[in-house]
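Annex B.
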Amino acid sequence: MAYHTEPAVLKEVILWKKNTLQEVKNEIKDTSTKIALLQLQDQDVSESNTQLQPLEPQELEFRRLKTELDAALDRAVNLANSITWHTSMLSHIQILPAELLSYIFFLTLDHTSFPEWTPSSFPPLIYARVCSSWHATVLSTPLLWSSVSIFIMPGRNWSVPLSLELIWHPKVGDPRIHATLRDLVVSSSFRWKRLQLFVPDDTLEIILAQPLPALEYLGLGSETSEFTKPIAPLARSDFVPSLQTVSFLNVRSSALAWDMPWSQLTEINSKGLRCATEILWLLHRCSSLKRCCLRLSRHNHIIQFLNQRLWFWLTTGVVFFQSSTLRRLLSALVMFWCYEMELRDTVKCIPSLKEKDTVPQGLKDLLLGRSHEDLR
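F-box domain-containing protein: predicted structure tokens.
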């Protein structure tokens, strides 16, 4: 534990320094008086001496007194600053152990995986400007620097797991892209815990070309299609052994373009509209799925449903956007432990339309029949 001076000792030190400061102020007053008298004497002698010859003893005395005055003034300033600093340490927050203070700083951070901070609004930088004690605590707390832009002091986070968001659209064909990426992010890839990428496809191959042992969340904002060349290493479970959640953040990003360890994923999210065939393709491969958020397209002219029913251990909820094909899709699913399902219709997002229950009773009965638990 970090050592902090007891309040009683601080008060004793402050009292001693205040008394010393008063003594120094008295010295300054006496020395200033002596200098003023010496200047008056020198003026009288100068007026009576037509030759204006300097008097050496008075000149030496004046210089000595001036040196003493300057030194006393410096001591007074230092004592006043020291008293102010020690007085601030009597604040309750200043006598907290450094470990507890750093934990408080960590709790006050925004609870977002990828906060949009700038250097002027980055909390650790703001805390560090308050006082020397806070400055030292912030710099010695790597967790405060674990979810930052790669442009904000990446060395401060030491070796803790990182959450990084990379939004980069480099010039096409720029040969410096490989070296730049390696220098900025690839060297710390073994520490990535949450990764969100909005980069071109060729850049993805560079970023995801090394093992990611700590990666738990992967957000992909690149435009991909089923014709995009998959990132092969992600398919190996030993390449991303901790990966649990994948989010497709681009409306034109297709999950079919990715070769991933689908069976180990517990959550999958997709921002773009998916056809029923693609949703079934995903659910069929994600056997460990516990939560998903998928948008079902209303236009499914050709739907090839699987003949067999799919069993899932979904627990925390499934979110679909309702369409005319939703009943047929749910008919192929058996969600044994599902206790919560949310069905949304796009018309309910329009404020001018009257709020209404868009889930027919027959569909509710179908859902209840698919779950052996209480379904909300």
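Confidence is low (pLDDT under 50) at residues 301-311, 315-319, 345-359, 371-376. The chain has four domains: 7-94, 96-160, 164-265, 293-376. Further annotation is deferred to the next reporting cycle.
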